[in-house]
Automatic annotation (TrEMBL):
Pfam families: Mlo. May be involved in modulation of pathogen defense and leaf cell death. It comes from Prunus mume (Japanese apricot). The chain crosses the membrane at residues 14-35, 123-145, 247-266, 272-290, 331-354, 374-395. It is found in: Membrane. This is MLO-like protein. It is a multi-pass membrane protein. The keyword RNA-binding does not apply. Belongs to the MLO family. The C-terminus contains a calmodulin-binding domain, which binds calmodulin in a calcium-dependent fashion. It comes from the Eukaryota. Coiled coil: none annotated. InterPro entries: Mlo. Keywords: Calmodulin-binding, Membrane, Pathogenesis-related protein, Plant defense, Transmembrane, Transmembrane helix. The gene is LOC103326788.
Amino acid sequence: MAEGETTLEYTPTWVVAAVCSVVVLISLAVERVLYYTDKYLKKKTQKPVFEALQKIKQELLLGLIALLLTTFQDRLGKICITEKQGSQWLPCKKQDMSTSTTAPRYCSEGKVPLLSAIAWHHLHIFIFVLAAVHATFCVLTILFAKAKMSQWKRWEDSIKSDYHPEEVLKMKVIAVHDHDFIRSRVLGFGRNSDFIGWLFAFLKQFYGSVSKEDYLTMRHGFVQTHCRGNPKFNFHKYMIRALAADFKSVVGISWYLWIFVVIFLLLNVWGWHSYFWIAFIPLILLLAVGTKLEHVITQLANEVAEKHIAIEGDLVVQPSDDQFWFHRPRLILFLIHIILFQNSFQLAYFFWLWYQYSFDSCIMGKVGYIIPRLIIGAFIQFVCSYSTFPLYAIVTQMGSSFKKAIFEEHIQEGLIGWARSAKRNKPLRRVDPKEACVTVNESSVEVGTTGEIEPELPLRSPK
């Protein structure tokens, strides 16, 4: 570090937040331009140009970042602010300016540079560390979630081995309260109390979050609602495909997440301990999401128990968006995205400070605030990976609609091609419906037994 240069420890947080905001806005603007260029090329069927853009997209973004780093480093040192402005909202307690401020090379007397070269260098290292840690933790989350869901595969396999069409004609009438799903979710001490019901849901997310009875009942409800003509539909395989598709959304860093980064950098003022208090935001969200998902399963059981005394054959729950916050199951994924990013941010910030300024640095804070923060971060990562994310994967299938992952990838491509051909009044192509459901509500198409996709009105392309 050059003599007299100011590090981020003594750089005003409002300066760091402002500079970070400008960099993020420019990066997001370029990313949007590339995104809409992709869409335009797809729409115009410019496949060679589209493929070329895909190959150079990462190079364009990396080149932009390198250009921003060089440009900002030269220009920020020439922007001057008063010494009073430069001594407000500091991450560390103010020290002797002779050792903590940058020599005013371009600034007149009584003024200091907006951001030193070394502080800018440390800031872009932090942005890189944040992206790397978030990607790593997201990969760990999906791996743990799939490990948990792999335990459910044996329940799916048991359905195929135990399924006998002739037994369907010999279904027995069974009292609702004799079903294991109802007994475990509805019956028992205090279950008719809303408070006890929510408390049960809160505790349930930490142990046996999804039992065999839960899985089989929700699977049966999904199949009866969306795949009645295919009772041997592979529900487990569908969930894995849907989870993989959702993972693409979770691993990204959206604009609203960058807003959180900027706010945190702004509030990271000496004596506020904001890094400690903000750690409770993902923790509270995680517990709320897990509790809600468990409560949805309980509500499905309550609906059946309230409407029926006895049921012929297997118990069938009715999937509905009404069970979810604002009738939007997709909102759960949005909250999980925030939880994972905020937790990644907290841990990335700790590791970056440790590497850049050492554990004893004033910007790191007191040990009494550091240890609880690390424990909370580890707890969030484990529970979200092994409990909440698998819960999300199965419970959000209890919404009114389903995802395009219900089709195999080649069938999805066939549907999209069919929709585009239909818009251009071209002959429809045939697709293989072996793994598909009979009725496709979400995409407003119906798969016939011949394999031809027949349109329903109004005509819409699959989402």
